[in-house]
C-alpha cells in the first residue's frame, strides 16, 4: 500500500505529517476485515545523514502516539531519523476506535469491604458493556497485533528495518516486536521498562510498594523541614498527619475544584503521585498543606487547574487499556482480590497502586483469548539500551533490571529519581547523551548510572503554580505514559 502523507489537521499535531495505514483486524485472516492505524511523521532534518525510521510508542497501553513524533525535532535523533508516531489500533485517530459506552470504574485508595464489593460489581458491569459494544474488536486488541501493525507500517514505508523508542508499556511492545521480528529491528531504546514476567496483574501490583518507597523518602524529608511545613517533626508524625487528613476527607470531602469531589481517595492518590518528584517536594508540600490545615485553596489557583485539566489530552484510552491487558489470564477467584485489597489498603494506600488489587474487568472476561502473550527473547537483533529510575513507581526499578537481563542489554540507572520516562527534551543530559550516542552513532554503552535531580531546597514556602503542579498530580508524564 502507498502511504499518502499530508499535513496533520489537528492543532496538537502541528508541524507533523499524518497518514493512515490499513492492517488486518485478525492476522490469522490477512485478507479479511481491515482496520486503520493512524500514523505521523517528523521527517529527518538532515537528509544526507538520514538512517531510516524510528518507530515510537508513549505507553499506556492505550496511549495515543502520534504527537510523540514531534518531541524530537531539533535533537540529534530528529536530525537523522524520520520519527514515526502511531495511534495503536483502537485508539486516537485510528479506526474503529474502542468505546465501551460504560460508566468509568470507581477508584479507591483504602477500600472498605463494602467498596471492594462495589468495585467488583463495577468491573462486572464495565466488562459486560465492553463486550456488548466492542465484542468483535476487543479480542484482537493485543500487544502482538500492535507489533504486527508496526511491521506493516515499516513495510509500507519501504524500509527493510526499523529502529524503536518506547516508554513504559511501550517497552513491552518493543520487546514483543523484537521477539516476533528480530531480523527487522535495528537500534532499540526501552525507557522505564515493565517487568518481562507476570503480564499483566503482577506488573500492576508492583506499583503500590514502589509508591510506598517514595512516601518513605518524602515523609523523611518533610520531617526534616517541619519548621517550615508543620507536618510533623518525625516521619511517624508526618504519616499521622497525612492519615488524619485522609480520614477527615473521607467524612467531609471538599469541592475546591469545579465538578470534582475531593475525598480521601483523591488525596491518597495525589499524595503518592507527588511523592515521586523529589525536586518538586517544596511545591507539593505547599499544595498538600492546604488540605492538612483544612484551608481553602486560592480561587485563582483552582481555576487555573480546572482550565488546564479541560485543555489537557494525555492521549490515554481507558477502554483500550482494558482490552489489551485482557490478553493475559487474570485470576478468577474473588477471594484472592479481596485478600490483596485488604493488604494494600493497610500497607500501600498512596498513589493509586491499591486500586490494582481490586477485581478488574479482565477478571470477568467472557471472550476467548486469540493467543497467549508472546514469550520475550532477544535472538537476532542488536543489544537494546534500557533506562530505569531508581524510584520509578509506575514501573519499578527491579522491572528494568529484569528486562535488561532478559534482553541482555545495558541499563542506564537514574539514581535517586522517582520519575517515569527519562529520554525527553530538556531532561537529564547524562541520559540524553547516552541515548543519542547510541541511536545516532551506534555507541553501545556499558551499564551506566546517571544522577537524578536533587531534592528540593526549602527555606520559605513557595507559591502555588498550577502549570508546574498539574503534571505532577496526574498518572502520566508529558508524553502520556500511564503504566
From TrEMBL:
GO molecular function terms noted in the UniProt entry: hydrolase activity
Biased composition (Acidic residues): 458-468
Ranges for domain Peptidase S33 tripeptidyl aminopeptidase-like C-terminal: 359-450
UniProt organism field: Marinitenerispora sediminis
UniProt family annotation: Belongs to the peptidase S33 family.
Keyword line: Hydrolase, Signal
The keyword Cell membrane appears for this protein: no
Name used for this protein in its record: Alpha/beta hydrolase
Region Disordered, residue ranges: 454-483
PANTHER family: 2-SUCCINYL-6-HYDROXY-2,4-CYCLOHEXADIENE-1-CARBOXYLATE SYNTHASE, TRIPEPTIDYL AMINOPEPTIDASE
Amino acid at each position: 500500500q502507498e502511504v499518502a502523507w499530508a499535513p496533520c489537521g489537528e492543532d496538537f499535531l502541528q508541524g507533523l505529517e499524518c497518514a493512515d495505514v490499513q492492517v488486518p483486524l485478525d492476522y490469522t485472516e490477512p485478507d479479511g476485515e481491515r482496520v486503520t492505524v493512524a500514523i505521523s511523521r517528523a521527517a529527518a532534518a538532515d537528509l544526507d545523514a538520514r538512517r531510516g525510521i524510528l518507530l515510537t510508542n508513549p505507553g499506556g497501553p492505550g496511549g495515543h502516539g502520534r504527537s510523540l513524533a514531534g518531541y524530537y525535532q531539533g535533537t540529534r535523533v530528529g536530525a537523522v531519523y524520520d520519527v514515526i508516531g502511531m495511534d495503536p489500533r483502537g485508539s486516537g485517530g485510528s479506526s474503529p476506535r474502542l468505546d465501551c459506552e460504560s460508566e468509568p470504574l470507581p477508584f479507591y485508595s483504602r477500600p472498605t469491604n463494602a467498596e471492594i464489593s462495589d468495585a467488583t460489581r463495577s468491573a462486572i458491569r464495565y466488562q459486560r458493556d465492553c463486550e456488548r459494544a466492542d465484542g468483535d474488536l476487543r479480542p484482537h486488541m493485543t500487544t502482538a497485533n500492535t507489533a504486527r501493525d508496526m511491521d506493516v507500517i515499516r513495510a509500507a514505508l519501504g524500509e527493510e528495518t526499523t529502529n524503536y523508542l518506547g516508554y513504559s508499556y511501550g517497552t513491552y511492545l518493543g520487546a514483543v516486536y523484537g521477539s516476533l521480528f528480530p531480523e527487522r529491528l535495528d537500534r532499540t531504546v526501552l525507557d522505564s521498562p515493565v517487568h518481562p514476567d507476570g503480564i499483566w496483574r503482577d506488573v500492576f501490583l508492583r506499583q503500590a510498594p514502589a509508591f510506598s518507597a517514595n512516601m518513605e523518602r518524602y515523609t523523611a524529608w518533610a520531617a526534616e523541614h517541619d519548621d517550615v511545613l508543620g507536618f510533623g517533626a518525625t516521619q511517624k508524625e508526618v504519616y499521622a498527619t497525612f492519615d488524619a487528613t485522609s480520614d477527615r476527607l473521607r467524612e467531609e470531602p471538599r469541592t475546591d475544584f469545579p465538578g470534582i469531589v475531593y475525598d480521601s481517595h483523591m488525596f491518597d492518590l495525589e499524595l503518592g503521585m507527588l511523592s515521586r518528584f523529589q525536586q518538586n517536594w517544596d511545591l507539593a508540600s505547599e499544595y498538600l498543606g492546604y488540605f492538612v490545615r483544612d484551608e481553602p485553596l486560592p480561587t485563582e489557583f483552582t481555576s487555573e487547574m480546572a482550565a488546564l485539566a479541560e485543555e489537557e489530552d494525555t492521549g490515554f484510552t481507558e477502554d483500550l487499556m482494558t482490552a489489551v491487558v485482557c490478553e493475559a489470564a487474570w485470576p478468577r477467584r474473588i477471594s484472592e482480590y479481596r485478600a490483596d485489597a485488604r493488604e494494600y489498603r493497610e500497607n500501600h494506600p498512596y498513589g493509586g497502586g491499591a486500586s490494582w488489587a481490586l477485581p478488574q474487568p479482565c477478571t470477568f472476561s467472557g471472550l476467548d483469548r486469540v493467543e497467549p502473550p508472546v514469550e520475550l527473547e532477544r535472538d537476532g537483533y542488536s543489544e537494546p539500551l534500557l533506562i530505569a529510575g531508581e524510584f520509578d513507581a509506575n514501573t519499578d526499578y527491579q522491572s528494568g533490571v529484569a528486562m535488561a537481563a532478559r534482553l541482555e542489554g545495558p541499563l542506564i540507572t537514574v539514581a535517586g529519581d522517582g520519575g517515569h520516562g527519562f529520554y525527553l527534551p530538556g531532561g537529564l543530559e547524562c541520559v540524553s547523551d547516552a541515548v543519542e550516542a547510541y541511536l545516532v552513532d551506534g555507541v553501545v554503552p556499558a551499564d551506566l548510572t546517571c544522577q537524578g535531580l536533587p531534592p528540593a531546597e526549602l527555606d520559605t514556602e513557595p507559591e502555588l503554580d498550577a502549570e508546574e503542579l498539574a503534571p505532577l498530580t496526574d498518572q502520566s508524564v508529558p508524553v502520556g505514559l500511564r503504566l
